[in-house]
UniProtKB/TrEMBL annotation:
Residues 66-111 form the N-acetyltransferase domain. InterPro entries: Acyl_CoA_acyltransferase, GNAT_dom. The gene is LOC112689381. This is Dopamine N-acetyltransferase-like. It comes from the Eukaryota. Pfam families: Acetyltransf_1 (PF00583). One of its GO terms (molecular function) is N-acetyltransferase activity.
């Protein structure tokens, strides 16, 4: 977490370590509300489609940067870059071979790209439809796709 001198939260990042055998799910989405299930299913399918461990067979553990957020007044000041840099240092310290981010925001995607992460999978929101052909997530420009990024360490 990044905190200003006056104690205001400037931004934060939530990370976890994911191992090669950790990406599993029993397919039971009934425990989620209808809206939450749609999001969880989307994230689960995207994680499977990105196939990070298949694309990088020598990687056994990744530091997954799950949520990256910067408080609006502090955006554009390098807070995200600092958070990603600290996460990379932590990943190396913990023996991870990769850092990984799933970006729903175009701004976060640009920030991790600037840090050197490469896009390994992308889903256009307009292409993700339900069984009736309706777009599941209606986003505003410039947030047009969900992107998965990775950087070998």
């Amino acid at each position: 977490m990044a905190v200003s001198q006056n104690g205001e939260v400037m931004g934060g990042i939530i990370c976890n370590i994911t191992g090669r055998t950790d990406i599993q799910y029993d397919g039971n989405f009934d425990k989620y509300s209808e809206l939450n299930a749609k999001v969880v299913i989307f994230l689960y399918k995207t994680k499977l489609q990105s196939n990070v461990f298949g694309q990088y067979p020598s990687v056994d553990h990744i530091l997954d940067m799950n949520i990256i957020a910067v408080n609006r007044p502090y955006r554009g000041n390098g807070i995200c870059k600092s958070l990603v840099k600290k996460s990379k240092e932590l990943a190396i310290e913990l023996g991870c071979q990769m850092i990984y981010a799933e970006c729903s925001s175009n701004y976060t995607a640009k920030a991790v790209e600037n840090f050197g992460l490469k896009c390994i999978h992308s889903v256009n929101y307009a292409d993700y439809i339900d069984e009736k052909g309706n777009v599941m997530f209606k986003t505003q420009s410039p947030h047009e796709s969900f992107k998965v990024y990775a950087l070998l360490l």
